[in-house]
C-alpha cells in the first residue's frame, strides 16, 4: 500500500476510529516522566520526546500476571484444578511506539512462541490482539545505538503502521495489513512528503551512527567458552550492584518467576518478572547455586543478549539499542563498552 | 491453541515410601481425562512439572515408561515447599501434571548398540523408565548388550528394589547393584558405581553410556570411561537445574544458550563440554 | 573540585605504587551526564581514571562488603562524611576491620540530584553537564543553560550534619563547614503533620512507581545480608507481586531494618531508576532514633548501636 | 528491653505511614500471668474489632493482576 498522509489536526478523528473496539495507549507526560498510559485525546500525544522511561513490554508481559486460578478448599478436590485466566477482552492499540521497542517484540516472539509446546498463551493472546502504531525517531538520543544492533530510528519490524513526523502532518506507512481499513480513507502522500521522510530517516540514522555503538561482528565466530572465560567479566561485575534495573527497563528481558498464592478460598498461580542478576534466580533446593557469584550473573545477561540468543535464534541480537539501561544503571555499566570489550 | 502452562488434572493412585530415610516417595498418577492421557505422549528421559495448587510446581523426571500403560510414576525427594506438601498427599488426592517436557534419551540412535547405564542415588528415576523401555519385548531386540550399574549409600537407600530384582533374574541384561559399604544382611556388590565400572570394563565399540547421578559421581566416572577409550559423544548425561516454566522461556535453567528444560535435560558430554558449567 | 580529584589521583598512585593497598575504590567519569561511577584502580596507571565531582552519588562503602575481587587484601577508599560514617557502621557490625581500609578523606561538596536537573528541562535530552564554579552548565541539543548547583543538590545533602569524614587516614583538600546549613529536624518525617488517612496516601503515592528492582537495597551499605528477607523463600515473608501490599511490605521492612544504622547518605534515592524518595519514610526512623535515644549512626567507633542496648528509663508508654 | 526500643521505632513507623494506631500492641506478660494474658487478648481483639477491617496492606488476590 502506498504511503498516506495524516494531518495532525485530523488526529482526533483518526484516534476515534482507532478506538473503535480498542483501548488506545500512548507515551505521555505523566508528572514529568514519559510513561505509557491510556490515551484520552490527540492533544495528549507527545511528538518531541526521546522514549518512555520504561519499555512498553508490560502490555504483553505484565510485571505481575495471574495465569490461572483455583478454589482453595480441602473438601473441593475438583476446585483445586487450575483454570486459565480469561483472555484479553478488548483489543489494544499502542500508538507512538518507538521502532526499537517494536523490534523488541519481534525478538521476544522468537522466544515466547517457538513451537507447539513453547507457545506462551498469555503473550500470544495480547500480541494477536494489539495493533502497534510506531513513531519514527527523528531526533535520537546520545545513548541510542539501534543501528548497530540491526534496528534503526525509522525501522518497521514488529510494527503494523509507521508514522513519520513531518511537522504539521504525519507520513503514514502501512507495514502489515492489520490496519488497512483504518488507513483506507487517508489521502496519499505526495512525492515531496516521501522525500522529506527519506531525508529525516537519513539524518536520524546519521545521528545514531555518530553515537557510540556496539560492534558484534566477532561474536558469532567465537566459541561460547572463549567469551565466557574472557578476562573482562570480573571487572564489569565489580561495580555491579546486582539490582534488577537493567533487566526491568529492558524491552527484551523476559525472565520470570511463577508462584502460587492463596487467600482463604481463593488461589491463583501468578507470574512475576524476575531477573538473572538475582542470587535467588538460579539457586537449587540443595543450596547449590550454578551462578553463585556476581560475575556469573552479570556475564549471563550480556552473554544471553549478545551470544546465546543470536546463536539460538538465527543471528537475532537480544538487544535493540534503546539505551535505557545505559541511562538508568545506578553504577553506569554501559552495555556498549561491555559488548565492545567482548567483541575486541 | 493449548495453554501449555495449565497442568493436566491427575489423581494419586498409589504412593510408596522408597527409602529408609523416608525422604523419597513414589507416586503413581492416573489422568482424570482420557484425552489428556493420550496427549501426554512421552519418551524415557523426559520430565514433567508436578503441580500442587497453592504450593507450586516442581520439575521431576518421569520414572515410568510408556510401555507400562498410561499411569505415570514419579519419585520425589522431600527438599522444599512443594515436595514437603506432596509427601503429605495421599492416594485419591487430585493434583496436576504438566508435560511431557524436555528432550529424551536418544533411544532411536541407541538402536543396535550396546548400552551401559550408570545410576547413582535417586537419579535412577528416568533410567528406570529407560530400562523398562529397553527390556520390553517390543524393544529388547533393537538393542545390544545392556549393563545396568546402580549404586546407593546403603541397601535401604536403593529405589525400585522389586524391579531390579526381577531384572537380575533375566539373562538378557547384566544388573550390578552396589552399596557404598559392607552392610549386615547385604550380600550384593560393595563399592561406588565407578568401582563397578572399573571392574566390568565396558568397551566403547558400538556402545553408548547413560550416566545419571550427583555431580561428584559424574566427575569420577567419566575418567574411567575415557581410560577405556570412550569418546565424549558416547556418554550421555542428564542435568537438573532450577526451573519454572519448563518450556524454554523463563530463563533460570539457562546453561549457555541451552535451556535445560527444553533443549535438555539430556546432553552428551561432548555438548556439555562446550558450555559453561552452570549446573 | 579538580584539585581534589588530582589529590585523590596522587594519593591513589602513591598507595598503589608503594603496595600499601591492592586497590583504590573511587569514582571515574561516567558515559552519561551526571553519572560518575564506582571505579576500582589496581595500578598507578588506572589511578589516572579517578575523579571527584558533584556527580559521585553512590556510597562507596557498599563495595567494601560487595566486592568479589581480591577480597582478602587491603583497600583504599575515597570517603566523604556519610561514607565514612557507613565505614564506621560496617566496622561496628563486624563486616570489616579498621585495618583493612585506608580512608582517603574528602569533604563532601553535596551531590547533585539528577532528577532535579532533568525536571528543569522537561522532556528534553540532556547531553552534557559540567561543573563551573558554583554553577552547572547543562547542555542539550538546542540549549545551554547555567543552573546554580546549590539549587539542584540532593535533599539529604542540604541537611547533612557531617560533610567531613569522621575517620580518615589522609585528607585531600580542606575540611569544609560541618553542615550544609539545613536543619534535618525541620524536614525529617514530612508526613507527621498529616492525618492518618493522608499519611497512607502520601506513602502509597511515594512508592507507586516502584518496579521492585531492589536498586535501593543493593546500593545501600547497610543491606549486606546474604539473603535479604524479601528473597527468603521458606518462609516467604513478602509476596513477589506488584500489589501495593507487597511493595509496601518491602519498603517498610527494609526501612525498619536500617533503623539506627542509616546515615542518610542518599544512595538509595540516587540509585532508584523511577525516582522514589525513600527518605520520606526513612527520615522518620532516623528522627525517632535521634529523639528517643540520642543517637546518630556512624559518628564514632565506640558508641553502642541504639537498638542493641537499652536503658531502664527508655520510653514505654505504648506498652500495656 | 531490646524489644522495647525496636518496638517503639516500628510502632512509630507504621503509624507514620498511615497504619491506624491501635492495630499494634505490645505487652509484657510472664508465663505465670494467665489473667493478664487473657485480659490483654480481650483488650487487643476489642480494640482491633473497633477499628474495623484493615484498609491498608491488604492484598486481594481476586483482583486481576
Describe the 3D structure:
The complex is a heterotetramer of chains A (344), B (279), C (320) and D (65). In chain A, 31% of the residues lie in helices and 19% in strands. Chain A is of the alpha/beta class and 344 residues long. Chain A has one domain. Chain A is globular. In chain B, the strands form 3 sheets. In chain B, strands 10-9-8-7-11-12-15 form a 7-stranded mixed sheet, sandwiched between helices. Helices cover 22% and strands 30% of the residues of chain B. Chain B has 2 domains: 8-101, Beta Barrel (Elongation Factor Tu (Ef-tu), domain 3), CATH 2.40.30.10; 114-238, Nucleotide-binding domain of ferredoxin-NADP reductase (FNR) module (Rossmann fold), CATH 3.40.50.80. Chain B has 279 residues and is of the alpha/beta class. Chain B has helices at 34-39, 81-87, 125-135, 137-140, 161-168, 193-200, 215-227, 269-273, and strands at residues 8-17, 24-31, 47-52, 56-61, 72-77, 94-101, 114-120, 146-152, 174-179, 189-190, 207-212, 235-238, 254-255, 258-259, 266-268. Chain C starts with a helix and ends in a 27-residue tail after the last helix. The chains are: A alpha/beta (344), B alpha/beta (279), C alpha/beta (320), D mainly alpha (65).
Quaternary structure of the protein:
heterotetramer
**How far apart are the termini of chain D?**
43 Å
The number of helices of chain D is 2
Q: Would you tell me the structural class of the helices and strands of chain D? A: mainly alpha
The radius of gyration computed from the alpha-carbon positions of chain D, rounded to a whole number of angstroms, is: 15 Å
Beta fraction of chain A: 15-25%
Number of helices of chain A: 11
% residues in beta strands of chain D: under 5%
- Unreliable stretches of chain A: none
Give a quick precis of the structure.
By secondary structure, chain B is of the alpha/beta class.
Blueprint of the fold:
The complex is a heterotetramer of chains A (344), B (279), C (320) and D (65).
Chain B: E1 8-17, E2 24-31, H1 34-39, E3 47-52, E4 56-61, E5 72-77, H2 81-87, E6 94-101, E7 114-120, H3 125-135, H4 137-140, E8 146-152, H5 161-168, E9 174-179, E10 189-190, H6 193-200, E11 207-212, H7 215-227, E12 235-238, E13 254-255, E14 258-259, E15 266-268, H8 269-273
Parallel strand pairs in B: 7-8, 7-11, 8-9, 9-10, 11-12
Antiparallel strand pairs in B: 1-2, 1-6, 2-5, 3-4, 3-6, 12-15, 13-14
Chain C: H1 2-18, E1 23-28, E2 37-41, E3 50-51, H2 62-66, E4 75-79, H3 81-92, E5 101-105, H4 114-120, E6 126-132, E7 135-140, E8 144-148, H5 155-158, E9 170-171, H6 184-187, H7 196-206, H8 215-218, H9 244-257, H10 267-271, H11 279-293
Parallel strand pairs in C: 1-4, 4-5, 5-9
Antiparallel strand pairs in C: 1-2, 1-3, 6-7, 7-8
Chain D: H1 2-16, H2 34-51
Amino acid at each position: 500500500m502506498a504511503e498516506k498522509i495524516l494531518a495532525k489536526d485530523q488526529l482526533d478523528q483518526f484516534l476515534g476510529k482507532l478506538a473503535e473496539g480498542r483501548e488506545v495507549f500512548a507515551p505521555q507526560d505523566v508528572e514529568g516522566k514519559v510513561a505509557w498510559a491510556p490515551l484520552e485525546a490527540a492533544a495528549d500525544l507527545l511528538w518531541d520526546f526521546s522514549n518512555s522511561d520504561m519499555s512498553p513490554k508490560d502490555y504483553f508481559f505484565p510485571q505481575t500476571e495471574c495465569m490461572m486460578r483455583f478454589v482453595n478448599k480441602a473438601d473441593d478436590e475438583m476446585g483445586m484444578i487450575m483454570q486459565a485466566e480469561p483472555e484479553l477482552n478488548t483489543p489494544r492499540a499502542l500508538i507512538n511506539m518507538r521502532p526499537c521497542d517494536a523490534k523488541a517484540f519481534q525478538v521476544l516472539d522468537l522466544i515466547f512462541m517457538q513451537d507447539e509446546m513453547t507457545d506462551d498463551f498469555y503473550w500470544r493472546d495480547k500480541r494477536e490482539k494489539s495493533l502497534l502504531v510506531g513513531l519514527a525517531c527523528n531526533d535520537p538520543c546520545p545513548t541510542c545505538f539501534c543501528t548497530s544492533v540491526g534496528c534503526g530510528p525509522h525501522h518497521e519490524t514488529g510494527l503494523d503502521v509507521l508514522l513519520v513526523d513531518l511537522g504539521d502532518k504525519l507520513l503514514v506507512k502501512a507495514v502489515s495489513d492489520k490496519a488497512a481499513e483504518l488507513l483506507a480513507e487517508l489521502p496519499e502522500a505526495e512525492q515531496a512528503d516521501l522525500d522529506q521522510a527519506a531525508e529525516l530517516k537519513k539524518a536520524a540514522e546519521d545521528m545514531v551512527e555518530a553515537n557510540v555503538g556496539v560492534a558484534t561482528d566477532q561474536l558469532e565466530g567465537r566459541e561460547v567458552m572463549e567469551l565466557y572465560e574472557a578476562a573482562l567479566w570480573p571487572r564489569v561485575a565489580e561495580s555491579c550492584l546486582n539490582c534488577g534495573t537493567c533487566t526491568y527497563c529492558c524491552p527484551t528481558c523476559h525472565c520470570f518467576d511463577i508462584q502460587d498464592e492463596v487467600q482463604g478460598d481463593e488461589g491463583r498461580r501468578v507470574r512475576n518478572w524476575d531477573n538473572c542478576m538475582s542470587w535467588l534466580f538460579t539457586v537449587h533446593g540443595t543450596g547449590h547455586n550454578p551462578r553463585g557469584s556476581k560475575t556469573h550473573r552479570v556475564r549471563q545477561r550480556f552473554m544471553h543478549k549478545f551470544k546465546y540468543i543470536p546463536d539460538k535464534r538465527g543471528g537475532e541480537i537480544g538487544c535493540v539499542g534503546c539505551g535505557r539501561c545505559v541511562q538508568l544503571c545506578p553504577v553506569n555499566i554501559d552495555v556498549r563498552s561491555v559488548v565492545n570489550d567482548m567483541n575486541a | 491453541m493449548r495453554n501449555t502452562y495449565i497442568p493436566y488434572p491427575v489423581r494419586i493412585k498409589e504412593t510408596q515410601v522408597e527409602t529408609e530415610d523416608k525422604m523419597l516417595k513414589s507416586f503413581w498418577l492416573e489422568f482424570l481425562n482420557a484425552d489428556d492421557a493420550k496427549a501426554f505422549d512421552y519418551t524415557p528421559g523426559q520430565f514433567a512439572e508436578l503441580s500442587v495448587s497453592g504450593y507450586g510446581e516442581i520439575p521431576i523426571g518421569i520414572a515410568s515408561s510408556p510401555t507400562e500403560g498410561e499411569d505415570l510414576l514419579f519419585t520425589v525427594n522431600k527438599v522444599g515447599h512443594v515436595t514437603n506438601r506432596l509427601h503429605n498427599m495421599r492416594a485419591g488426592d487430585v493434583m496436576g501434571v504438566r508435560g511431557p517436557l524436555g528432550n529424551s534419551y536418544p533411544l532411536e540412535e541407541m538402536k543396535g548398540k550396546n548400552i551401559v547405564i550408570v545410576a547413582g542415588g535417586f537419579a535412577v528415576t528416568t533410567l528406570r523408565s529407560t530400562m523398562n523401555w529397553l527390556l520390553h519385548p517390543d524393544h529388547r531386540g533393537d538393542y545390544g548388550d545392556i549393563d545396568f550399574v546402580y549404586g546407593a549409600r546403603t541397601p535401604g537407600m536403593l529405589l525400585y528394589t522389586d524391579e531390579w530384582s526381577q531384572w537380575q533374574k533375566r539373562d538378557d541384561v547384566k544388573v550390578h547393584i552396589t552399596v557404598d559399604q559392607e552392610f549386615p544382611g547385604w550380600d550384593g556388590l560393595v563399592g561406588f558405581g565407578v568401582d563397578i565400572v572399573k571392574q566390568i570394563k565396558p568397551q566403547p565399540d558400538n556402545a553408548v553410556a547413560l550416566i545419571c547421578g550427583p555431580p561428584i559421581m559424574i566427575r569420577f566416572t567419566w575418567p574411567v570411561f575415557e581410560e577405556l577409550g570412550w569418546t565424549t559423544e558416547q556418554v550421555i548425561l542428564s542435568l537438573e537445574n532450577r526451573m519454572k516454566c519448563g518450556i524454554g522461556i523463563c530463563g533460570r535453567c539457562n546453561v549457555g544458550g541451552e535451556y535445560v528444560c527444553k533443549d535438555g535435560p539430556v546432553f552428551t558430554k561432548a555438548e556439555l563440554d562446550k558450555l559453561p558449567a552452570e549446573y | 573540585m579538580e584539585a581534589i580529584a588530582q589529590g585523590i589521583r596522587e594519593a591513589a598512585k602513591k598507595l598503589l605504587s608503594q603496595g600499601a593497598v591492592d586497590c583504590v575504590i573511587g569514582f571515574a567519569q561516567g558515559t552519561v551526564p551526571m553519572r560518575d561511577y564506582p571505579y576500582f584502580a589496581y595500578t598507578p596507571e588506572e589511578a589516572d581514571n579517578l575523579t571527584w565531582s558533584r556527580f559521585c552519588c553512590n556510597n562507596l562503602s557498599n563495595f567494601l562488603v560487595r566486592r568479589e575481587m581480591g577480597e582478602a587484601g587491603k583497600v583504599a577508599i575515597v570517603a566523604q562524611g556519610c561514607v565514612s560514617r557507613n565505614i564506621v557502621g560496617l566496622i561496628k557490625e563486624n563486616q570489616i576491620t579498621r585495618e583493612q581500609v585506608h580512608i582517603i578523606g574528602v569533604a563532601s561538596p553535596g551531590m547533585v540530584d539528577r532528577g532535579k536537573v532533568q525536571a528543569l528541562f522537561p522532556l528534553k535530552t540532556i547531553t552534557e553537564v559540567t561543573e563551573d564554579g558554583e554553577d552547572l552548565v547543562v547542555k542539550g541539543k538546542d540549549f545551554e543553560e547555567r543552573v546554580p548547583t546549590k539549587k539542584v543538590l540532593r535533599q539529604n545533602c542540604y541537611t547533612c550534619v557531617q560533610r567531613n569524614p569522621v575517620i580518615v587516614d589522609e585528607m585531600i583538600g580542606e575540611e569544609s563547614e560541618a553542615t550544609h546549613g539545613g536543619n534535618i529536624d525541620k524536614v525529617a518525617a514530612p508526613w507527621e503533620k498529616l492525618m492518618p488517612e493522608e499519611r497512607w496516601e502520601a506513602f502509597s503515592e511515594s512508592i507507586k512507581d516502584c518496579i521492585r528492582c531492589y536498586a535501593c537495597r543493593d546500593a545501600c551499605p547497610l543491606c549486606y545480608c546474604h539473603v535479604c528477607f524479601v528473597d527468603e523463600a521458606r518462609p516467604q515473608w513478602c509476596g513477589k507481586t506488584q500489589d501495593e501490599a507487597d511493595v509496601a511490605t518491602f519498603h517498610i521492612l527494609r526501612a525498619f531494618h536500617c533503623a539506627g544504622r542509616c546515615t542518610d547518605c542518599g544512595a538509595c534515592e540516587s540509585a532508584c531508576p523511577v525516582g522514589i524518595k525513600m527518605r520520606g519514610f526513612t527520615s522518620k526512623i532516623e528522627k525517632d532514633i535521634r529523639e528517643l535515644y540520642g543517637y546518630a549512626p556512624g559518628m564514632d567507633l565506640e558508641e553502642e548501636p541504639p537498638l542493641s542496648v537499652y536503658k531502664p528509663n527508655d520510653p514505654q508508654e505504648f506498652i500495656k | 528491653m531490646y524489644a522495647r526500643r525496636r518496638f517503639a521505632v516500628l510502632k512509630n513507623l507504621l503509624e507514620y505511614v498511615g497504619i491506624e494506631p491501635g492495630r499494634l500492641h505490645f505487652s509484657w506478660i510472664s508465663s505465670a500471668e494467665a489473667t493478664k494474658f487473657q485480659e490483654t487478648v480481650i483488650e487487643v481483639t476489642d480494640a482491633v474489632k473497633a477499628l474495623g477491617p484493615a484498609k491498608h496492606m491488604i492484598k486481594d488476590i481476586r483482583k486481576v493482576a
